[in-house]
Write a structure and sequence with these properties.
Mean pLDDT: 89
Structural class: mainly alpha
Helix content: over 70%
Largest sheet: none
Number of strands: 0
Distance between the termini: 14 Å
Low-confidence stretches: 1-10
Shape: globular
Order of helices and strands: HHHHHHHHHHHHHHHH
């Protein structure tokens, strides 16, 4: 959800996967009876974020000033659209919320602005609790985890020697994954939004990019298969991912081991890259690519608008009203991308 990639055929599929991810998340939030596990879009986002941020930093020289350049780029990428959202939501909150709701919103605003939402607002709480519809900035939990990781990422990447940093990432990935399984087995409330239980999904994307040549060499057997066989495997993978998003109902044991399926699927498609027929013909569709380009502001806007609707209208929001809210979110996202991000923010490629 972070990097704004240049447009060419080799990276269109990454933007397209971002588009698929945000569509899954939006359908889960707006139509959970249809997309029971659309929240796996966040898992895909995490993997892509780790992969892309590593691609970004490895293309630069390694010196002591790069750490500050990295942090500066993150601030320029994240804050403008988020601050615009905060301003508009605060005006709406003043107009529609009572005193108690304003206090709650103020706590959310503070924790979201310092990227600690999952640790402060959702500390030990259940993300899937129905009362969360009243949390206006609930979607900031995942952005908080990403930014927490980005605080330590350049310290590992720029300070440590290349061989040692790979070992550190490996240890971090394994420890986080084991901890995630531990949280699942113990049935810990709040496991879904736990920072350390989630960071392995970002780190596995980091590790994939660092070892991309070795992984591709190890997967040579796939490219030796007939084109028909390759295409069938890819179609089954994509169909399996979509079926998982529609049918899986074990949210109380997620992420844990279940998260390995969406994570493994996106890893495979990242390894296949532009050689994948799915990446070429479906994921690189210009509409998916554009939705992926606006995925960050779209992610920011889609939940607060739905939450406001719940607060103002109550639980019974007709599907037509939900469609209008999705369309409004998209319009605001396009505005943020075209006017704020694309024209006024210089993002390091």
């Amino acid at each position: 959800m972070q990097e704004n990639l240049s447009k060419n055929s080799k990276i269109d599929y990454i933007q397209g996967w971002r588009g698929i991810s945000i569509i899954l998340v939006i359908f889960y939030h707006y139509f959970p009876e249809i997309m029971k596990a659309g929240y796996i879009g966040v898992d895909i986002f995490f993997v892509i974020s780790g992969f892309v941020i590593t691609k970004s930093v490895t293309s630069r020289s390694r010196n002591k000033y790069e750490i500050f350049r990295f942090y500066g780029a993150r601030v320029k990428r994240i804050f403008p659209s988020m601050l615009i959202m905060f301003l508009i939501l605060t005006l709406m909150a003043v107009a529609f919320l009572d005193v108690r709701e304003m206090r709650s919103y103020g706590a959310e605003l503070h924790s979201g602005a310092i990227f600690m939402y999952n640790m402060i607002v959702l500390d030990g709480d259940d993300y899937f609790n129905q009362d969360k519809a009243l949390y206006l900035l609930l979607n900031l939990w995942s952005l908080s985890i990403e930014m927490q990781f980005y605080m330590i990422f350049p310290l590992i990447f720029y300070v440590l020697m290349p061989g040692f940093r790979k070992n550190i990432f490996l240890i971090l990935c394994m420890a986080s994954f084991v901890y995630s399984i531990y949280l699942e087995l113990r049935g810990v409330i709040g496991a879904y939004t736990n920072s350390f239980g989630r960071v392995w999904q970002i780190v596995v994307g980091v590790m994939l990019y660092l070892h991309i040549n070795e992984v591709k060499n190890a997967c040579n057997f796939f490219f030796k298969l007939s084109s028909t066989c390759q295409q069938l495997i890819e179609v089954f993978l994509l169909a399996g991912l979509l079926l998982f998003a529609v049918l899986f109902s074990g949210y109380d044991s997620y992420p844990g081991l279940w998260a390995t399926f969406p994570v493994a699927t996106i890893l495979i498609f990242l390894v296949l890259g532009s050689n994948s027929i799915i990446n070429q013909k479906i994921v690189s569709n210009r509409w998916l690519v554009y939705i992926g380009s606006v995925s960050y502001p779209l992610y920011l806007w889609h939940w607060p608008l739905l939450s406001f609707a719940f607060i103002i209208l109550g639980d019974l929001i007709h599907w037509k009203e939900r469609i209008v809210l999705i369309f409004t979110s998209f319009v605001l996202a396009v505005f943020s991308y075209e006017i704020i991000e694309k024209k006024y923010i210089y993002v390091e490629k």
